[in-house]
């Protein structure tokens, strides 16, 4: 029986900051911990969204691919979906949606929301895969493609991390999107309006998995890095 109260996270956003971008978990291994999730591939290879057990990658050309079991990731979240209806929204901007969700939940625990509906003036991004020796997160993220649609129907999959966990993840919301027709998606930069059903799944347990078999990670000294500043620069 799946444990739907657990959010599984492989890696941390902090390890991406200095460019520790090796893939340290396979998609097959990740899917053992959930049928829903987000992440990025080795070398920041695109943006991942897992829906109903199927892992989709939006690459830097905007193409949506289903990735193989041996696709590797340096960072990912996954969980077993058990969403409950929360509310309906109409023409809410990204910032207004975030505010509304926090009035109906708690900012002191992890949760995921899933919104299926129509989104207007939505902008997403995906980063081009880089090779070793990797540059920093902020430098690698400069080589990104930005995509936009005036109006499109699809699924917004979001994770919220409490601010006290900022660095392990993104303190606050982290949104990924996939259109119903699988022609558009990625890490969400902004949207003007969201209209649709909002479902919520709250977690009381974070299962944090670290890449202890990766020598570069285990030997790295993070003390001289502005981890939080670089995360927020790259994720905004």
UniProtKB/TrEMBL annotation:
Instruction: Give GO BP annotations, semicolon-separated.
Output: acetoin biosynthetic process
Gene symbol here is: aldB
Q: Which Gene3D superfamilies match?
A: Hypothetical protein, similar to alpha- acetolactate decarboxylase, domain 2
The pathway to which it is assigned is: Polyol metabolism; (R,R)-butane-2,3-diol biosynthesis; (R,R)-butane-2,3-diol from pyruvate: step 2/3
- Which Pfam families does this one have? AAL_decarboxy
Reactions listed under catalytic activity: (2S)-2-acetolactate + H(+) = (R)-acetoin + CO2
What are the UniProt keywords, alphabetically? Acetoin biosynthesis, Decarboxylase, Lyase
E.C. numbers:
4.1.1.5
**Similarity section:** Belongs to the alpha-acetolactate decarboxylase family.
Any idea what this protein is called?
Alpha-acetolactate decarboxylase
Q: Which CDD domains match?
A: acetolactate_decarboxylase
Give this protein's Gene Ontology molecular function annotations: acetolactate decarboxylase activity
Top-rank taxon, per record: Bacteria
InterPro entries noted in UniProt: Acetolactate_a_deCO2ase
Establish whether keyword Lyase is in the entry. yes
């Amino acid at each position: 029986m799946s444990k739907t109260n657990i959010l599984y996270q492989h890696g941390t956003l902090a390890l991406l900051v200095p460019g520790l971008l090796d893939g340290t978990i396979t998609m097959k291994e990740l899917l053992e911990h959930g049928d829903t999730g987000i992440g990025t591939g080795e070398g920041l290879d695109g943006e991942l969204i897992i829906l109903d057990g199927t892992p989709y990658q939006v690459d830097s050309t905007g193409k949506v691919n289903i990735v193989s079991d041996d696709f590797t990731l340096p960072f990912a979240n996954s969980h077993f979906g058990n969403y409950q209806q929360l509310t309906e929204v109409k023409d809410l901007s990204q910032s207004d949606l975030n505010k509304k969700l926090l009035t109906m939940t708690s900012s002191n625990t992890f949760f995921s929301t899933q919104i299926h509906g129509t989104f207007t003036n939505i902008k997403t991004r995906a980063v081009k895969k880089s090779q070793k020796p990797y540059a920093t997160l902020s430098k690698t993220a400069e080589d990104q493609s930005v995509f936009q649609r005036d109006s499109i129907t699809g699924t917004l999959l979001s994770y919220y991390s409490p601010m006290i966990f900022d660095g392990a993840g993104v303190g606050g919301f982290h949104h990924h999107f996939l259109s119903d027709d699988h022609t558009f998606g990625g890490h969400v930069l902004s949207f003007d309006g969201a209209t649709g059903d909002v479902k919520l799944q709250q977690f009381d347990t974070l299962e944090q998995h670290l890449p202890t078999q990766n020598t570069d990670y285990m030997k790295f000294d993070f003390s001289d890095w502005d981890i939080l500043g670089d995360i927020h620069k790259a994720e905004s």
